[in-house]
Specification:
Blueprint lengths: L1 E4 L4 H12 L5 E4 L20 E3 L5 E3 L1 H11 L10 H28 L8 H22 L12 H16 L5 H4 L1 H11 L2 H4 L6
Parallel strand pairs: 1-2
Antiparallel strand pairs: 1-3, 3-4
Helix pairs in contact: 1-2, 1-5, 3-4, 3-5, 5-7
């Protein structure tokens, strides 16, 4: 299999962590999806990463779809529970983390626009989503050792990727200081090779 992504994409990182946890071999092709000559359009008509190319060349896109495919493709280290309520709880965490990331990416893209074209109201709205999302993460985690259930799941991967990207792109948020329970979770996650080996970079 081949994974197409970028070194800075949190969504590609989520897939890379799942691949590492599942001990699955793959080739990683890094590219800039925003580049004028990006080849991503050949694999994903939406022009977004990540894209997983299967052995037969069929592309799978959207990180949530990819990680579900990977978790079902191998019984090793199941990350998404089969019980309906437990599965939905994990996917709810994933949706929350991905939503915070979506808002953070929109803030970055809006800030990159020329000042006269920039919408501060739009930026404020997205920043409100980030703040509210972090508050819900901290509230729902409470004093639990893991996000969902009694063990490590896709919920923890999703939250860890989200928090890591926010620390990378928005260090001024200082979420480790304001959300100590999230910081405790992150310490455990950062000790895992799958997290250490996929740190975001420019």
């Amino acid at each position: 299999m081949k994974l197409i992504g970028s070194d800075a994409s949190p969504f590609a990182r989520k897939v890379r962590i799942v691949l590492a946890e599942k001990k699955m071999e793959y080739e990683f092709e890094a590219l800039d999806p925003w580049g004028d000559k990006s080849g991503i359009w050949h694999s994903n008509p939406l022009g977004q990463v990540p894209v997983l190319l299967l052995e037969d060349g069929k592309p799978i896109f959207d990180s949530r779809v990819i990680v579900e495919f990977l978790d079902n493709a191998s019984p090793r280290g199941k990350l998404i529970p089969t019980d309906n309520r437990e599965r939905i709880e994990v996917r709810r965490w994933e949706a929350l983390a991905d939503g915070v990331l979506d808002a953070g990416v929109l803030v970055r893209r809006e800030r990159a626009r020329p000042a006269k074209e920039r919408s501060n109201a739009w930026i404020d709205r997205q920043q409100k989503k980030v703040a509210a999302g972090l508050s819900m993460m901290a509230q729902d985690l409470a004093e639990n050792p893991w996000c969902a259930g009694n063990g490590y799941t896709l919920a923890d991967i999703s939250v860890g990727v989200c928090l890591g990207w926010l620390a990378f792109r928005f260090p001024e948020l200082s979420w480790r200081e304001s959300k100590p329970n999230l910081a405790r979770l992150m310490v455990k996650l950062e000790e895992r090779p799958s997290f250490a080996d996929t740190l975001p970079k420019e």
